[in-house]
Design goal:
By secondary structure, this protein is an alpha+beta fold. About 30% of the residues lie in helices and about 30% in strands. The longest helix is centred in the last third of the chain and has 15 residues.
């Protein structure tokens, strides 16, 4: 059962958030075995990602007590251009590197971030949201499927040897 917390909000990231986004993203992907050293460097390059995507963060004021940041989740939303070789037309948007702090999982933070991406894509006139995901990210797959995403196996791809990504899409 997902428990939503109304105090959590999604904002556009600011440069002061980049250190926390890097720590959170690289840490979760590393600790859960979803990234090798080469990809960890990309995950930690938040400034580089900010040049190619709109970085969104989930903020939980309660998490800030005794911490240096209230950021408990993040995602990179791509409305224009390319960031990850999954978009095939200007009518598509995508998101990548969705991450939620383990301490707040089960509270709807991931869903809130995805729904915010969907809302922003619709507002930008996009007709489809596309994402790629590592096959072992089963909790993420459950979220995507619950929100109506379907698999597009014909668009699965491999960014590097030994890494095979699944593609999901949702018509907006």
């Amino acid at each position: 059962m997902v428990q939503h917390t109304s105090a959590i909000r999604v904002d556009r990231a600011v440069p002061a958030d980049f250190g926390r986004i890097a720590e959170l993203t690289a840490g979760v992907y590393r600790d859960e075995g979803f990234a090798g050293d080469e990809y960890l460097a990309q995950l930690a390059d938040v400034a580089g990602r900010a040049d190619r995507a709109e970085l969104l963060v989930a903020r939980d004021p309660a998490a800030a007590a005794g911490q240096t940041s209230d950021v408990v989740g993040s995602v990179a939303l791509v409305l224009e251009g390319e960031f990850g070789e999954v978009l095939t037309s200007p009518a598509e948007a995508g998101f990548r590197m969705l991450v939620v702090d383990a301490a707040v999982r089960g509270r709807g933070v991931g869903e809130l971030l995805v729904r915010t991406c969907l809302d922003r894509a619709r507002a930008a006139g996009k007709r489809r949201m596309v994402l790629s995901t590592e096959p072992r990210m089963v909790a993420a797959h459950r979220l995507y499927e619950r929100l109506g995403f379907t698999r597009l196996p014909e668009r699965d791809w491999s960014p590097m040897e030994g890494v095979h990504l699944r593609v999901y899409a949702l018509d907006l």
